[in-house]
Structure formats: C-alpha cells, structure tokens
Amino acid sequence: MNPTETLVPPARAAGAARVLRLARLDLLLLWRNRTALFGVVGLPAFFAVMLLVSNGNGHTSGGIDAVLWTATGDVAFFLVPAVFMNLLNVFTARREELTLKRLRGGPLTDAQILGGSILSATLLYLAQAAVIVVIIATELGGGLPADPLLMGVGMLAGAAVFALLGMAVSGLTPTAELAQLTVLPVLLVSMAASGFMIPLEGLPEGWQRAAQLTPLTPVVEIVRTAYLGRDYTVTGDHAELGALETWATCLPALAVLAAWIGLSLWAARRWFRWEPRHG
Known about the structure:
By secondary structure, the chain is mainly α. Helices cover 72% and strands 1% of the residues.
C-alpha cells in the first residue's frame, strides 16, 4: 500500500484535487474576462504603482512615512477587490447563467463548488499582498514583517470574512450588471472607515470605536501592527511592542474578526442563492 494512502483518504484527496482544479479554472476565466480583471487586478495594480510614484514625498501619517502607512494598509485593503468584489461577481454571474445549478447536479459537493472559487480569490489576494510586501521591503525601506504569523492570521481571517460577505451580497444582487452597484457600500465603508490610507486618529472617540467594528478595520490594525511591530490599532500610541505584546494588542481586533466571521457565515447561509430568482 502506498504510505500516503494511509495519511490522506482517497475520497478526501479526490475532493482536494477537484477544489484545486476549480480554483485554476476560476483564475483562467478571470484572465479571459477583461472587465472583471480590471476591477480585481487593475485596482490593486494602480495602488501599487502609486506607492512607487509617491515614495520620497516627505509626507507622514501616523508618525511614519505616509507611503509606508498606505502600503501596510494596502495589504489589508486588497481583500476588497480580490476577494469580496471578485466572488460577488463570480457567484452572481454563475447563478444567473445557471452554472451553479449545473455544477450542483454533478459529482461536486457544495463545499467543493464554493471552495474552488474562494481558494482562487484567496490565492490571488495573497499574491497581490506579496507584491506589496516586496515593495515595502525593497523600495520603501520598511523591511520584512516583524510578526509574519500574526499578520498571516489576520489576512486569512479577513479573507474568510470577505469571502462570506461576497456570498451573502451575491444573493441580494439580482443580476451581474447590478453587482457593480451592490459592491459600493462595502467598498466605500472600507475606504472611509478602515484607516488603510488616512489615519482615524483625528475622529471623535465614538467614531473611532465605531470604525473598529467595521469588517476591514481589524484586518488593517492587525496587518499594520504585525508588520511594523508597533501599536497601530486605531486608538494605539504607536509604541514598540514585543512578540507577546503584539498579539495581546491585536486581541480586540481578532475578536472583532471572529465576530464578523460568525455574522457573515449566518448572512451567507441566509441569503446565498444557487438559482436565479423567479418572478
């Protein structure tokens, strides 16, 4: 008997292979869809180019170079186009084209159908984030992340939140054309209330607390704090942190993310649709 067969049951291995094939197919279809490609890849590419163009302008944000502030925020913000916008468009279009219904009639399980798309979107996001990390380390003088494990936990938890939100909102979106409108509330809140580009320190305390409860803000807090090794939570004092202190400082943000995972999972189960609306 092949030793690997005792470690990975054949059914589980076959399921994982199906998910990987679906993920690869999703990436291929995205490449062929120029309109979707512009939103999912073009927007992050524009932000990356702007980092290079703005480097060295001498401006500061939150006590550090403004470009470094924005770059660490970009690592979190790319969840919106790469995961949320991407999956909302994919699930809405495939539902209306009856593709989801046909896939359900085959050998694939629901988890495999959804997992392939979520995996492709997450891998795309991680690739985009890796580009920003390279820019930070080589061009912006920010070095490598101080706590890559915590940073990775925050990024993957954020990917889970925005994947589930994409599923939920797709169920509320009547057509693929209207998906360009239904993404706007999440996109605008993420840009205005997360602090990924502009610090939230100048806001009244109540507004700061409210901003910390939005889905992207805890990811920004975790990524920036873990990357720079300083307290860059919304109400933080930017003090240098040790390894355990970094995790302790980010516990509230991790708790908010855990709550968003639960809330978005409930919303996805309630609103996600496999078939088009009738009537």
